[in-house]
Design the sequence.
């Protein structure tokens, strides 16, 4: 080969293309992982907001022991469980109940959920 000729050989070109191809594959994987993390963070944020809203709605009125459930838009299911508080005594002038609000959703093949629990004290029915 004459030294006065300039340019790349076929091997150099193939090596450069292989490096570029690997770089694109790694970059695609990084972007894909970040999009997945963003979607999961969005789902977690929406679920946290929904469960807070559900718990706040349950605070209005007098809670009755029992279980209620339903669905929100976007594939989120909710469950509200009201039960007598552990350790509550019958001679107390108030009723103490535990309210547990749960929001669940499907993430790929797994079910994810977030639960918030609170204690609510209300006057007994006969004392109002």
Sequence:
């Amino acid at each position: 080969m004459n030294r006065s000729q300039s340019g790349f050989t076929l091997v150099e070109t193939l090596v450069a293309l292989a490096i570029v191809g690997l770089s694109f594959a790694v970059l695609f994987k990084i972007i894909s992982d970040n999009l997945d993390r963003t979607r999961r963070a969005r789902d977690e944020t929406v679920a946290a907001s929904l469960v807070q809203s559900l718990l706040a709605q349950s605070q209005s009125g007098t809670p009755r022991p029992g279980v209620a459930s339903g669905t929100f838009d976007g594939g989120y299911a909710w469950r509200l469980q009201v039960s007598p508080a552990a350790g509550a005594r019958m001679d107390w002038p108030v009723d103490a109940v535990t309210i547990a609000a749960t929001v669940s959703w499907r993430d790929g093949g797994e079910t994810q959920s977030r639960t918030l629990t609170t204690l609510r004290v209300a006057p007994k029915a006969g004392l109002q």
